[in-house]
Amino acid sequence: MKELKVNVIGGGLAGCEAAWQLANRGIKVDLYEMRPHVMTPAHTTSNLAELVCSNSLRSDRLENAVGLLKEEMRRLNSLIIKAADLNRVPAGGALAVDRNAFSEYITDIVENHQNIDVHYQEIKEIPKSEYTIIATGPLSSPSISEAISQFVKEDYLYFFDAAAPIVTLESLDKTKVFRASRYGRGDDYLNCPMNKEEYTRFWNELVNAEVVTLKDFEKKIFEGCMPVEVMAQRGLDTLRFGPLKPVGLTDPRTGKEPYAVVQLRQDNHKATLYNLVGFQTNLKFSEQRRVFSLIPGLENAEFIRYGVMHRNTFINSPKLLDSFYRMRENNRIYFAGQITGVEGYVESASSGLVAGYHLAGTLLGKQVVEFPGTTAIGALARYISNPTIRDFQPMNVNFGIMDPLEKRVRNKQDRNKLIADRALKAIESYIHPR
What we know:
The chain is of the alpha/beta class. The protein has two domains: 5-159 and 311-431, FAD/NAD(P)-binding domain (3-Layer(bba) Sandwich), CATH 3.50.50.60; 166-307, Elongation Factor Tu (Ef-tu), domain 3, CATH 2.40.30. Helices cover 30% and strands 15% of the residues. The chain contains twelve helices and 16 strands. It has helices spanning 13-23, 65-75, 79-86, 99-111, 142-152, 196-207, 228-232, 285-292, 317-320, 345-363, 376-384, 412-431; strands at residues 5-9, 28-32, 56-59, 88-89, 94-97, 116-119, 132-134, 157-162, 166-168, 178-179, 189-194, 260-266, 273-276, 303-305, 309-314, 333-335. The strands form four sheets. It has a six-stranded antiparallel sheet with strand order 10-11-12-13-9-14. A hairpin with a 6-residue loop joins strand 12 and strand 13 (273-276). The radius of gyration is 22 Å and the shape is globular.
């Protein structure tokens, strides 16, 4: 019997998840990762599944669509979610991780799996006649990008993503910063409260600060990762209703709600590093130090990483892929990750899970049906493969793309809970069909 084998190109979240799903079902996998021989503008290590933006995988509550997606993936034995659960750091209702421990764990698991061979080399051509999952990510190298572009016969679409700065805990002014989560839900965040005068001064400096000059084709920015300076330019109070909103927080020094609040989230297990929540930015490094040091408590902050912007690339998936992330015109080729137009760490991993799960079943001669639209994982796969979509844009998972309930429920929390309950029942039926 001929050995069953699959190429997975790209060792990010989607590629590692796909390789894991295949390997655990007895399929041999050749996993290719170009780093550290070829680096990207955003990566800093040679680890697989390195997180280059936030360290948060967002909400872990079932009443939130991404929280539901995580739980579905847990039940489908997701490597990425298992790694996140094992390496989580306090973040209120969110699932945030120690980024180094997270990627080191995944690297160790993947490199030592008996059915996975990891090759640290750049792939420049697509092996069209072999079973292959392309998960090269938003920072695909120029060579593989050109190969993909020629292969799919479609122009690429571009948008730009931005990463937030990270500071050290010991460099913060503890007399001005207080610990709390909104509405008394623990104390996982550090909060830098601002009065009106401090906020206005900060806003003025932010909107007038120097940014890295972008070319025209670089100016299409995904709304979910809007740089803080771009958001500020929309109006004086925009940030106060966005990442700097003070609601649900009380400054212990005054006993009142601050005018504005900058929140910092733990970035590693030892709680020595914190990132500025919502502060993705394209400011020059010198300007980041100058402007962000105006935030109360950050006057002498030590920045161990400045914010950066980088290119994200995605294909026109509705024209090219089916709901298994498989090419419509070549059933040996799958895509996974942000290159498919799913947006977010968890969503990227979910696409790798679906691609690996389906391809493994196909190679083993099983009939694999698509995940139902009542599930988050199925709804996302259906969204990126909907051929009726004309102006395709990246999408985070959300309840709006899932099948609606049969009966209308006015209360949002009650509605979301019912959708989540229905989804988990559907996943269980999918995993254990009668």
